[in-house]
């Protein structure tokens, strides 16, 4: 899920979002109280006048990309005592942490007896910084990483999520894998007793919101894309997107004698062979990248170079010659060859709104025509087949290793309340007022016994722009019902960094999966928190986060109130303060 924090903050007046919903469906009745809402500038998002970005009072400013990467956010830490200069000097000597994980567990044990029952609750993982491994294939800021992992384990975290970048490991030549930094990082996770979700990241880093570093596709892949620009996704105006190789050539030998899917399978196989001693023990999940930002979708809303801005509807990405060839074949098979020469030409631009376009408007829009049904079915089914090809390879590679495979789907919640759901359609999700686009994806994931991972779990409807008909809560509800029907485990992520209690409570609510009154025995498979950074270790943020993790671990059947858990968290934070501060200091530039 790729959203800018400022983009997401809507007008919070305590009113319901004026969305359109199907008959019988009840919109969210949540209202905003003065003490619990995000303040935002007044004005319509469609205005051309500039607006100031607003943030919740409890949040620290978002990370800003710079030469030092994600770690160089904090210039000073006002919460640290002056006498911590001794700790700073200790770090200069590269001395190891003094407390072991076992000592921490014994010192800071929860008053109710420690870890959650294995059969209850939702395990929490934390995403590592995108630049955790450097371009030189070493661990980035090793002391900071070691101290941070120590702190996370002390808080009862199940584990961490790590992006394993194709563009780093197989950068120089086909089949030449350099696992250097990942070997060291995974060993560190094992040392601290943390489980790992490893993401096979076959996309470029640096093109999505929150990307604080740039990691392009492998050099030899880019060389082939320069020779044949149709290997890149293309919009109707001929603009190329180099985040991810177009799925139109999935099975073609276009990458130095191999197909893209073969390259992905070989990469995963090399990962398995190199880390087989950790699979099923330390490495417990493999999330397989399937598109931009690692998500199963088309790059319909690229922020790079200001191409798209929230909440634009995005644009279809089916104009490279390989995708057009597939469209032509589908049209001929349907007996409509005239539909096979191009995609919709009346679907607006990246920053259009549904009612501004003939194709997406609610009354008489092309999306609801015979042609629209044909095109959208082909566009979405082609995406699902792409996911199935990669998922099939991953399942074969990691069979009998004890790891779980997962697939990430984007939480595209803007214009969800409209009839056409335009932003979802351009991304490849054929979800409209009259059609469930998430059930087919869930069924595909279920066929391989994988996990369906979804974003925007932390969002509330009333926090979003009202005129953009955003409805993240209803979207999460729909996905929850689809995964229930498909009998596939559902996991979640937050789309944006949040440290406030309101977001934590929303995640707890969503993770309980109390959707239709009959989900008493069902909870989310896991939750992954975005992302580890210096702000997480600020005292107030850390205290809230520790309490949140405890509540997640306890599960939805826990009868203990927030206040009781927060009191325990306060005690826990005090006990573990030395090495949490040590982690915060280590993250300073």
TrEMBL record:
<protein>
    <recommendedName>
        <fullName>Beta-amylase</fullName>
        <ecNumber>3.2.1.2</ecNumber>
    </recommendedName>
</protein>
<keyword id="KW-0378">Hydrolase</keyword>
<dbReference type="GO" id="GO:0016161">
    <property type="term" value="F:beta-amylase activity"/>
</dbReference>
<feature type="binding site">
    <location>
        <position position="531"/>
    </location>
    <ligand>
        <name>substrate</name>
    </ligand>
</feature>
<feature type="binding site">
    <location>
        <position position="203"/>
    </location>
    <ligand>
        <name>substrate</name>
    </ligand>
</feature>
<dbReference type="GO" id="GO:0000272">
    <property type="term" value="P:polysaccharide catabolic process"/>
</dbReference>
<feature type="region of interest" description="Disordered">
    <location>
        <begin position="22"/>
        <end position="63"/>
    </location>
</feature>
<feature type="binding site">
    <location>
        <begin position="494"/>
        <end position="495"/>
    </location>
    <ligand>
        <name>substrate</name>
    </ligand>
</feature>
<comment type="similarity">
    <text>Belongs to the glycosyl hydrolase 14 family.</text>
</comment>
<feature type="active site" description="Proton acceptor">
    <location>
        <position position="493"/>
    </location>
</feature>
<feature type="binding site">
    <location>
        <position position="408"/>
    </location>
    <ligand>
        <name>substrate</name>
    </ligand>
</feature>
<feature type="binding site">
    <location>
        <position position="413"/>
    </location>
    <ligand>
        <name>substrate</name>
    </ligand>
</feature>
<feature type="active site" description="Proton donor">
    <location>
        <position position="295"/>
    </location>
</feature>
<dbReference type="InterPro" id="IPR017853">
    <property type="entry name" value="GH"/>
</dbReference>
<feature type="binding site">
    <location>
        <position position="163"/>
    </location>
    <ligand>
        <name>substrate</name>
    </ligand>
</feature>
<keyword id="KW-0326">Glycosidase</keyword>
<dbReference type="InterPro" id="IPR001371">
    <property type="entry name" value="Glyco_hydro_14B_pln"/>
</dbReference>
<dbReference type="InterPro" id="IPR018238">
    <property type="entry name" value="Glyco_hydro_14_CS"/>
</dbReference>
<dbReference type="Pfam" id="PF01373">
    <property type="entry name" value="Glyco_hydro_14"/>
</dbReference>
<keyword id="KW-0624">Polysaccharide degradation</keyword>
<feature type="binding site">
    <location>
        <position position="455"/>
    </location>
    <ligand>
        <name>substrate</name>
    </ligand>
</feature>
<dbReference type="InterPro" id="IPR001554">
    <property type="entry name" value="Glyco_hydro_14"/>
</dbReference>
<feature type="binding site">
    <location>
        <position position="211"/>
    </location>
    <ligand>
        <name>substrate</name>
    </ligand>
</feature>
<feature type="compositionally biased region" description="Polar residues">
    <location>
        <begin position="45"/>
        <end position="54"/>
    </location>
</feature>
<keyword id="KW-0119">Carbohydrate metabolism</keyword>
């Amino acid at each position: 899920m790729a959203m800018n924090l400022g983009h997401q903050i809507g007008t919070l007046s305590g009113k319901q979002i004026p969305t359109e919903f199907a008959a019988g469906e009840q919109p969210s009745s949540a209202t905003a109280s003065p003490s619990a809402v995000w303040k935002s500038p007044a004005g319509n998002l469609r205005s051309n006048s500039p607006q100031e970005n607003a943030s919740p009072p409890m949040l620290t400013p978002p990370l800003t990309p710079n030469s030092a990467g994600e770690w160089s956010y904090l210039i000073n830490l006002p919460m640290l005592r002056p006498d911590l200069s001794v700790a700073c000097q200790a770090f200069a000597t590269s001395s190891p942490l003094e407390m072991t994980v076992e000592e921490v567990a014994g010192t800071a044990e929860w008053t109710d007896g420690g870890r959650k029952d294995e059969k209850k609750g939702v395990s929490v993982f934390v995403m590592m910084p995108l630049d955790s491994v450097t371009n030189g294939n070493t661990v980035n800021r090793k002391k900071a990483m070691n101290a941070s992992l120590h702190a996370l384990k002390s808080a009862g975290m199940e584990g961490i999520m790590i992006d394993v970048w194709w563009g780093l490991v197989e950068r120089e030549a086909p089949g030449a894998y350099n696992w250097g930094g990942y070997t060291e990082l995974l060993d560190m996770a094992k040392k601290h007793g943390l489980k790992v979700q490893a993401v096979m990241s076959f996309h470029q880093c640096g093109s999505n919101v929150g990307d604080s570093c740039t990691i392009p596709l492998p050099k030899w892949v880019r060389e082939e894309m320069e020779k044949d620009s149709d290997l890149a996704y293309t919009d109707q105006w001929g603009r190329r997107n180099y985040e991810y190789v177009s799925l139109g050539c999935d099975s073609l030998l276009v990458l130095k004698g191999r197909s893209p899917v073969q390259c992905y399978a070989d990469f995963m196989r090399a990962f398995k062979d190199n880390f087989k001693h950790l699979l099923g023990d330390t490495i417990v999940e493999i999330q397989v990248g399937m598109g931009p930002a690692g998500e199963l979708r088309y790059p319909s809303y690229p922020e790079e170079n200001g191409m798209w801005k929230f909440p634009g509807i995005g644009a279809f990405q089916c104009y490279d010659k390989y995708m057009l060839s597939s469209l032509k074949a589908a049209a001929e098979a349907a007996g409509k060859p005239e539909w096979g020469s191009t995609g919709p030409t009346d679907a607006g631009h990246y920053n259009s709104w549904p009612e501004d376009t003939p194709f997406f408007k609610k009354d008489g829009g092309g999306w609801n025509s015979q042609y629209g049904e044909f095109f959208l079915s082909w566009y979405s089914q082609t995406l699902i087949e792409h996911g199935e090809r990669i998922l099939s390879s991953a399942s074969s590679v990691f069979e009998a290793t004890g790891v779980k495979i997962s697939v990430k789907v984007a939480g595209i919640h803007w214009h969800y309340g409209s009839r056409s759901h335009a932003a979802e359609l351009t991304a490849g999700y054929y979800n409209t007022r009259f059609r469930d686009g998430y059930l087919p994806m869930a069924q595909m994931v279920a066929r391989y016994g994988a996990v369906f991972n979804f974003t925007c779990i932390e969002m509330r409807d009333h926090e979003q722009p009202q005129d953009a008909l955003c409805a993240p809560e209803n979207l999460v509800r729909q996905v929850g019902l689809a995964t229930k029907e498909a009998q596939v485990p559902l996991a979640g992520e937050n789309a944006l960094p949040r440290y406030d209690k309101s977001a934590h409570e929303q995640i707890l609510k969503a993770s309980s999966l109390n959707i239709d009154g009959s989900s008493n025995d069902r909870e989310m498979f896991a939750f992954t928190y975005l992302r580890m950074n210096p702000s997480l270790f600020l005292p107030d943020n850390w205290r809230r986060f520790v309490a949140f993790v405890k509540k997640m671990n306890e599960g939805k059947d826990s009868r203990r109130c927030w206040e009781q858990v927060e009191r325990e968290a306060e005690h826990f934070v005090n006990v573990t303060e030395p090495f949490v501060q040590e982690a915060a200091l280590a993250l300073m530039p």
